[in-house]
Amino acid sequence: MELVEDEARVKDALLHLTLKFTDASYFEEEWRKVGARVRITALVPEHISGKRVNES
């Protein structure tokens, strides 16, 4: 896990999540109130594996 420092990336992720449940006006109001205190972490995989499929 790593902390997301880029404010634009944090705001974009929260906006997409908020729009699933309410509208953009609610998001903008809440962002003005608590945006500076929001922290988001990103899951960064160290290794990805899987079964190789031969689709021919």
Written description of the protein model:
The protein has one domain (2-42). The protein has helices at 7-19, 24-34, and strands at 2-3, 41-42. The chain has 56 residues and is mostly helical. The termini are far apart. It is elongated. A two-stranded antiparallel sheet has the order 1-2.
Write a brief caption for the model.
The chain is mostly helical and 56 residues long. Helix content is 43%, strand content 7%. The protein has one domain.
- With strands numbered from the N-terminus, the spatial order across the biggest sheet is 1-2
Domain count: the total is 1
Ranges where pLDDT stays below 50 over 5 or more residues in a row are none
- What's the pLDDT, averaged over the residues? 91
Put simply, the count of helices is 2
Helical fraction equals 40-55%
CA-CA gap between termini: 37 Å
Q: Which term fits the overall shape?
A: elongated
Main sheet, how many strands, which sense, barrel? 2 strands, antiparallel
Structural class: mainly alpha
SSE string, helices as H and strands as E: EHHE
Radius of gyration: 17 Å
Number of strands: 2
Approximate strand percentage: 5-15%
